[in-house]
Amino acid sequence: MAKCRNRQGAVLQRQLFQLGRLLVCCVLAITCVILPVQANWLSDIHRSISGDEKAPSLKPLSPAELADYPADYTYERVIAPSHQVPVFVLQAGLEHRDTVVLIHGLGDLASKDWLTVIPTLAKQYHVVAIDLPGFGLSQGAVFTYSPQQYAKVIDWVITQYRHDGQVNLVGHSMGAAISVFYASQYPGRIQQLVLVDAAGILDRTAYIKRISTRDNDQADLPQRVRRVLARVDNLADKILEKSGTGFDPTRIFSGDSSLRNMTIGEQTNVNAALALMEQNFSVLSYQAVPPTHIIWGGQDNVAPLRTAYALQHVLPLSQLHVINDAGHVPMKSHPHEFNQLLLASLNATIEPRQARPQHNSERMGRCFQDDQSHFSGQYQQIILNDCKLARFDNVDVKHLSITDSIVTVSASRIGTANHSMQITRSVINATDTEILGQMQSDRSRFDFAGVTFYGESPVFVSQASTRLVLSLTRIITPTQSTRLGGSYVLAEQSLESAL
Question: What is the pTM of this model?
């Protein structure tokens, strides 16, 4: 039964992110119908918003509520002062100095998601696991369940329950997104961070595109068929990108907290999922985040693995560990492997990423109609013309020209200082990549996640009709450093001028 609920939670999480806009429209429509009828309910919510509601009563935990938890742990429900809301707190391994705080994701199980992990951790650490307000055995409250608000709860929990050793924060899915937000906004409070299949980090358009696209590069199909499929996926992506720059009904809730609270305030999963979608993780300062281990299921269909590589790009000290056969909840599907990896991560020192070797290659790379679709290593120049399946993996190229092509780039360095590269009528999807010099676009589209531009401003110039989807993207010039996220449409202008 628990496995079934867990699968349902993962499915719910994916659907909430993918169908957010439709969901909000439905909520608004239903609200218009029920509000005139439910006058008493509206009055109750109004009292909550205006502060007229009495402080919540603290209900004692019952044996039935704790039936699924081990008897030898410590449990309590306490009032979190930040929101005057009752929060369920589990503790184990009380004899240890170093503390590990566990933050769960969406779904009804809440802290129960960690029950396969806590016994292993408790042998070496003081473990604190909570149910976030509105989830599990924590009572709900009428406020926006956003990373910012949840971070206040986490800060109180850490201050209240930590022992006198170091504090490590471990978050899964939505809890991982909240944890990285907390680490960036409360510097110095934790010594180490572990992110497990973090959800909601990518720009929402980039996320929906990724989970709706097949992997043509791995498909067991003739090249001619894969080229056609690539064109079909490209058309679908183009439509999604246009919706990303159009009217978004979720923004209604962003600007009116009263409307949010009146309509979805106590619907925890919807409230938390929409708030997560609204948070722009691209603009956070990651320089303050402590050493971070990133653990990911290689087959995660809820939080794409691309997110992990993008996070690794912006986090100053980070290390990625992939459990190849696992999905979105690796601590449930692969408990032994996950627990070993988590313990090793908490005890490991992270070294800075090694600098790329000095570029000394004169190699030339060319592709016409996918006669060479995969590129790796150092190149002096790469020229692509009508290549719909081109892929760059760990490429270091000084000069680049792309025309009528679709290119996927990962872990690469493109361009060179004081030079420009031309992208014409093409589509570029880049992750964990550095771009040097100036990129010039003519009627092209770009999806960047974990990408840094280095050079003299402007670093990106649109010559005509350019569309960009940016996640965890940065522009670093001699005079400024800018963090970017979101969707942009450029005419004849630079990216910097559109900010």
Answer: 0.82
